[in-house]
């Protein structure tokens, strides 16, 4: 007999809370050119996860963090908060979009070699249910669909610990030589 759905959701939520507490960055900022030199996109994310590079400032401002990265996949976890509310009393669509854009773009970036970078050319977000601070954590998981020399595409899903889908999105990214 399988576990009740509520027990599974509670266990997932406890695991996500532990991950958030353990991986919460100590330092926010930007990696220097020297720190980034010679690193692929995936190596940059691995260094951030290991605490060797700072997390980007937007993570602190919007309360979300990178929790997993592998070739073609990136996962961010966020905490919806009152600071993210719109005038209607729910989380602003821009917060959904930023979290999804981060997972989508980083899924693409995780496939790029040293010296290459990307920018979002198109972002499509579908919000399928509202969020409030009553949902303690959500995760955005982005996966690359196509990675070319000049363009890449990816899809992402934003889910709660109970497995509910809150939003999904897709992106097209331009690939180009980095600074």
Gist of the model:
With 179 residues, this protein is α+β, with helices and mostly antiparallel strands.
Give a structural overview.
With about 180 residues, the protein is of the alpha+beta class. Helix content is about 30%, strand content about 30%. It has one domain (about 5-175): Thiol Ester Dehydrase, Chain A. The chain has helices at about 5-25, 35, 40-50, 55-60, 95-110; strands spanning about 65-70, 75-80, 115-125, 140-145, 150-160, 165-175. The longest helix has 19 residues, at about 5-25. The protein is globular. The model has no long low-confidence stretch (mean pLDDT about 90).
Annotate the secondary structure layout.
Elements (H helix, E strand, L loop, with lengths): L4 H19 L9 H4 L4 H9 L7 H6 L1 E7 L2 E6 L14 H17 L6 E12 L10 E10 L3 E10 L4 E13 L2
Antiparallel strand pairs: 1-2, 2-4, 3-6, 4-5, 5-6
CATH class: Alpha Beta
CATH topology: Thiol Ester Dehydrase, Chain A
Mean pLDDT: 92
Distance between the termini: 56 Å
List keywords for this structure.
single chain, 179 residues, alpha+beta, Thiol Ester Dehydrase, Chain A, six-stranded antiparallel β-sheet, 5 helices, 6 strands
């Amino acid at each position: 007999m399988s576990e009740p759905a509520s027990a599974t959701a509670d266990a997932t939520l406890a695991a996500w809370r532990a991950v958030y507490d353990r991986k919460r960055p100590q330092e926010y900022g930007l990696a220097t050119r020297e720190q980034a030199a010679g690193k692929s996109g995936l190596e940059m994310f691995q260094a951030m996860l290991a605490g060797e590079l700072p997390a980007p400032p937007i993570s602190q401002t919007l309360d979300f963090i990178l929790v997993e990265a592998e070739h073609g996949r990136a996962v961010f976890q966020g905490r919806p908060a009152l600071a993210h509310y719109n005038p209607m009393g729910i989380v602003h669509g821009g917060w959904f979009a930023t979290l999804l854009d981060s997972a989508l773009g980083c899924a693409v970036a995780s496939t790029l070699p040293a010296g290459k970078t990307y920018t979002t050319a198109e972002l499509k977000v579908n919000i399928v249910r509202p969020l409030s601070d009553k949902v303690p954590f959500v995760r955005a998981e982005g996966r690359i669909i196509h990675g070319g020399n000049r363009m890449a595409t990816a899809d992402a899903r934003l889910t709660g610990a109970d497995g509910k889908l809150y939003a999904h999105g897709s992106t097209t990214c331009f690939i180009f030589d980095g600074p």
